[in-house]
Amino acid sequence: MKTDLFLLKYGELALKGLNKPAFEKKLLNTIKRRLAKLGNFSVRCSQSTIYVEPLCEIDTEEVLSVLSKIFGIANICPVVKCEKDLDEIEKTAVELIREYRTTQKTFKVESKREDKSFPLNSPQLSREMGGRILKNINDLKVDVHTPEIMVNIEIRDKAYVYTRKIQGAGGMPLGSNGKAAILLSGGIDSPVAGWMICKRGVCLEAVHFHSHPYTSDRARDKVLDLARIMAKYCGRINVHVVPFTEIQLAIIEKCPENYLTVIMRRLMMRIAEKIAVANNAQALITGESIGQVASQTMESLVCTDSAVNIPVFRPCIGMDKEEIVTISKKIGAFETSIQPFEDCCTIFVPKHPKTKPTLAEIEEAELLLGDIEAMLDDAIARDEVVVCE
Ligand code: ATP
Ligand code: MG
């Protein structure tokens, strides 16, 4: 059936006090920008509800797919409008149930009467429609406690009828909480980490290290594909692709082998910090999780953390791989993440990585590298920025 209106409910945003209008404005802007690709829409908000009205032919599922990726929206109901007439409302409700019902066996009607001149009050209208629906669809039963289908009828300028409530992405509107730089690898964890921070309203800048010719162009393209998948939720992401080969080779040549990974990660953090600061990002994000690999033991994380002066957020820190994979699948990144291309972290892996390094040992080993600042600045000077949207 043709959708006449999408009703959007806020999540946490509804709890905001004086700042609410500013948050609403950001959310409305994001909705308008994302929908512009699908045609002409009127978007307005009133009393914690956003009304999105298509002004052109649309594909309902396509619009739902875009709206359900916008942070700040708790749920979305596609509404069909009809005349405020019992027969018309019945026809619309029955058609909607028939179109979207799969295995559901129970329903409940809930009504709201905003137009008080309508002859039936809300409970009367619910009862009347419940009876009419039962007559039309004889294998459905009423269940007022845990209905599988909720038939909503709102009497306003027209009768609004809807049976579907699609879960939104939740979180806070994009841009309501500053900016951070995500260290984006081609793995499963870092896109999930970026998504989780972005869900809280944070815009992202991304940094990816590649080790050409040890890593292939396809490995780099895979990361850009991941950034594009994230961008459906997170908005446009600038990906800084930083050449890391020279730094890695210098570490291999000059530093003790068992410290290689931690030193490499510390230098990645320092480059990411410089890029973050230059692009007004206030923190770094990684996909690390305690104990996942040798470079993510508590001791290694302490050494990595001390390399930079801005906060490092690791939203996956306490998550098991299974839990991270569940989110990766939900956001549509998993299939891309598991494509088997090498990452710069995996090509030069020491045989016996130190799992409990001390900061003093690492700092001493780093002295062997000489002018580290110059090495970092040289890599940044050669980075390539790819806009992903
Ligand atoms: P997975 O663990 O699923 O293979 P990952 O992204 O967690 O993927 P790790 O080797 O565990 O990869 O790296 C830990 C973190 O370091 C990543 O989550 C990411 O934030 C960062 N990182 C690793 N390699 C790179 C890279 N080539 N470019 C940018 N950041 C990277
Ligand atoms: Mg990992």
Write a structural description.
The model has no long low-confidence stretch (mean pLDDT 94). It contains 14 helices and 15 strands. The longest helix has 19 residues, at 260-278. It has helices spanning 20-35, 60-67, 86-100, 122-136, 189-198, 217-234, 245-254, 260-278, 298-305, 321-330, 334-337, 344-347, 359-367, 372-381, and strands at residues 5-10, 41-46, 49-54, 73-82, 106-113, 141-142, 149-155, 159-162, 166-167, 179-183, 203-210, 237-243, 284-285, 312-313, 384-388. It has 389 residues and is an alpha/beta fold. Strand 10 (179-183), helix 5 and strand 11 form a beta-alpha-beta unit. The protein folds into two domains: 5-167, 2-Layer Sandwich (VC0802-like); 179-388, 3-Layer(aba) Sandwich (Rossmann fold). The protein is 40% helix and 21% strand. The two termini are 31 Å apart. The protein is elongated and about 85 Å long. The site of adenosine-5'-triphosphate (ATP) has 18 residues, from helix 5, strand 11 and helix 12.
